[in-house]
């Protein structure tokens, strides 16, 4: 042992520098951590310890510790993280993460310890994508399965998968309305169980499911949108509230178009905050809140939707006056000119 100890003293571990990583909700990502030990180690993996930690402000959360074939995983990461089974032979301590949640975003530190030597590096992870509930302008539960798929598509989103809804639920998504998902099942996420929202799970939190349904049955829908390739903005020239038609014209002045709900949800996820019900392309009026304020959505975060009736149905009349959210793609103009 003494001999080994002497040997360890002259090992040097170096980590390769890595760029930051990005993943999509419910998707997977590899947080890289590659190391080399010089001189090549004659010792076994027992002496190698890999630790991944998530840095949450001043707090540190253990994600995973692996040593000598024993792997311990921190709360919140169970069944979702792993490292290569033979890290020493390949110099790879990278962290594989699956079923990504928005709350996984942040700074991670990889620590490689070998005998007396240790070294560490950090990598930052961002997670894009948001799942949202969508109700047609007529009433609650009016979309059959083909119409649900089309509804999401028409607002620049796609129908969400069960995996995406599950990840959104883990992040705290709560909505007591049954909606279609991509596998033709109907589900809804409940984090705070309450009467009328029990479903098949009764008083337990979780995603309720009605199972696979006949495509002719009608429900609401859950849509998914990933990151935006453009900007959503409130036109700076807009001083007064306007009708839906005027909102369209206002956006045209900025060489943009009225934003769709999909674009607004993606912009909200990226940080857009404005406490003004504003027109969108589908004739709905909504506003995004990322900074909690009691007078805006009761201190809750999210996108608020204006409904005509107390039972949360009906879009406003297009002659009513609201603000406007415009969308402009990254590549500049929205129009293709064919003269
Ligand atoms: C309601 O939605 C349908 C289909 O998207 C559309 O054709 C119709 O104009 C909308 N009506 C209103 C009042 O927004
Ligand atoms: C919601 O309320 C409106 C107005 O009171 C009513 O016409 C409509 O039928 C209600 N819809 C549902 C789904 O209860």
UniProtKB/TrEMBL annotation:
**Protein's recorded name:** Versican b
Provide the primary localization: secreted
Organism of origin: Acanthochromis polyacanthus (spiny chromis)
GO cellular component, as recorded: extracellular space; perineuronal net; synapse
What Pfam family does this protein match (any one)? Answer: V-set
Localization of this protein: Secreted, Extracellular space, Extracellular matrix
Domain of life here?
Eukaryota
Family assignment?
Belongs to the aggrecan/versican proteoglycan family.
| Disulfide links within the chain | 176-197, 275-296
Entries under InterPro entries matching the protein: C-type_lectin-like/link_sf, CTDL_fold, Hyaluronan_bind_Proteoglycan, Ig-like_dom, Ig-like_dom_sf, Ig-like_fold, Ig/MHC_CS, Ig_sub
Q: Which UniProt keywords apply?
A: Calcium, Disulfide bond, EGF-like domain, Extracellular matrix, Glycoprotein, Immunoglobulin domain, Proteoglycan, Repeat, Secreted, Signal
GO terms in the biological process aspect are:
cell adhesion; central nervous system development; glial cell differentiation; positive regulation of neuroblast proliferation; skeletal system development
As one GO molecular function, the record gives:
hyaluronic acid binding
Q: Where is the Ig-like domain?
A: 23-126
Q: Please name the SUPFAM superfamilies in this protein's record.
A: C-type lectin-like, Immunoglobulin
Q: Where is the Link domain?
A: 130-225, 231-328
SMART domains, per this entry? IG, IGv, LINK
